[in-house]
Design brief:
This protein has 350 residues and is an alpha+beta fold. It has 13 helices and 13 strands. Among the domains are: 14-76, MutS, DNA mismatch repair protein, domain I (3-Layer(aba) Sandwich); 168-224, 5' to 3' exonuclease, C-terminal subdomain (DNA polymerase, domain 1), CATH 1.10.150.20; 241-349, DNA polymerase, Y-family, little finger domain (Dna Ligase, domain 1, 2-Layer Sandwich), CATH 3.30.1490. Helices cover 37% and strands 24% of the residues. α10 (206-213) crosses α11. The longest helix is centred in the C-terminal third of the chain and has 21 residues, at 255-275. The radius of gyration is 22 Å and the shape is globular. The model is unreliable at 343-350 (pLDDT under 50).
């Protein structure tokens, strides 16, 4: 069986890089896109701004405290989409086997092409820099998980390849957060039994992982820790919905707490919509009670949007109309009826 050759292409600090491209006086300075109003949040920031501790999804208020002299800009999604299309046009000159993850990220399957994946990566980087004017980082490996890991290795403007023989010494020291599918809450569970690095995770058997995560997810985590990932590069994946939910350690009964948690999740989901150039029309909430009974409520908007404030109003209406007569153990929220978004509304980042 032919070994796959996968590239992960990541546009470095994309929105901020476009702003520095269009305004050369911004180069070398902390540029923060988004967070220009009191309620706004950071969409992305330049590497100069990251040195101050600023990161995407941070409140604009906090970002300004960390970097009062930073250059705060409103997002220009139309311009970012224009640049993104130019980059993806270059990628399509290499192969049609492209899985677009977001406006600034993609996987390419270059298996079977005459040039080595490293030479292809060099060509892509050079061509994007010459034609478009921005830098990208490229990770190379024999599966998607390792290629994505590799693209983070020499950021910004880097190339890195992970080969079979590299896997043990590269993976073992890394935090378990680097394993795709393991979030902060999952990491806390594993930390509680002394598992902090992928090396620690390698000592964990499938039975223990199944106890924490269920059988199917346990198999996935077990394999990823060993650098195994058979997932294909999907040329077109239609996303039907985005959702988040959480189970409480102690059952609760407060609508105020429910709203606070769901608003946080709504922000994350709206951010995903913007980053993937999508809009949603339906907001749904899910409540599971202490006796394991559950209810779901949905509200369809008049039109598709990616506006956080509109989603928040719909969610608040749904929660306010709930009758809560017993304790709650789980809450969740989802955005569905998703389509491509052509109006580039970005008020959540203002």
């Amino acid at each position: 069986m032919t070994e796959r050759k996968i590239l992960h292409v990541d546009l470095d600090a994309f929105f901020a890089s476009v702003e520095q491209l269009d305004n050369p006086s911004f180069k070398g300075k902390p540029v923060i896109v988004g967070g220009t109003t009191k309620r706004g949040v950071v969409a992305t920031c330049s590497y100069e701004a990251r040195r101050f501790g600023i990161h995407s999804a941070m409140s604009g208020f906090m970002a300004k405290k960390l970097c009062p002299k930073g250059i705060f800009l409103k997002p220009r999604m139309e311009r970012y989409m224009q640049i993104s299309k130019e980059v993806f046009k270059i990628l399509s000159e290499v192969t049609d086997q492209i899985q677009r993850i977001s406006i600034d990220e993609a996987y390419l399957d270059v298996t079977g092409l005459d040039l080595s994946p490293y030479k292809i990566a060099v060509w892509i980087k050079k061509t994007v820099k010459n034609r478009v004017g921005i830098t990208i980082s490229v990770g190379i490996s024999y599966n998607k998980f390792l290629a994505k890991l590799a693209s983070d290795w020499n950021k910004p403007d880097g190339i890195f390849e992970i080969r079979h023989g590299d896997v043990p010494h590269i993976l073992k020291p890394l935090s378990i957060i680097k394993v795709y599918g393991l979030g902060k809450k999952s990491a806390i569970k594993l930390n509680s039994i002394g598992i902090f690095t992928i090396g620690d995770l390698l000592q964990c058997d499938r039975q223990t992982l199944s106890y924490f995560f269920g059988e199917s997810r346990a198999d996935e985590i077990y394999n990823r820790a060993r650098g195994i990932d058979h997932s294909p590069v999907r040329v077109k994946v239609a996303r039907k919905s985005y959702g988040r939910e959480t189970t409480f350690e102690e059952d609760i009964r407060s609508k105020a707490i429910i709203k606070e948690i769901l608003l946080q999740y709504l922000f994350e989901l709206a951010f995903k919509l913007v980053k993937t150039n999508k809009s949603a029309k339906t907001v749904s909430i899910k409540i599971k009670f202490e006796d394991f009974s559950q209810i779901t409520r949905s509200h369809s908007l008049l039109s598709h949007t990616n506006n956080l404030q509109i989603f928040e109003e719909a969610m608040t209406l749904l929660v306010d109309n709930l009758t809560i007569d017993k304790k709650i153990r789980l809450v969740g929220v989802s955005l569905s009826n998703i389509v491509d978004h052509d109006n580039y509304q970005l008020s959540m980042f203002d």
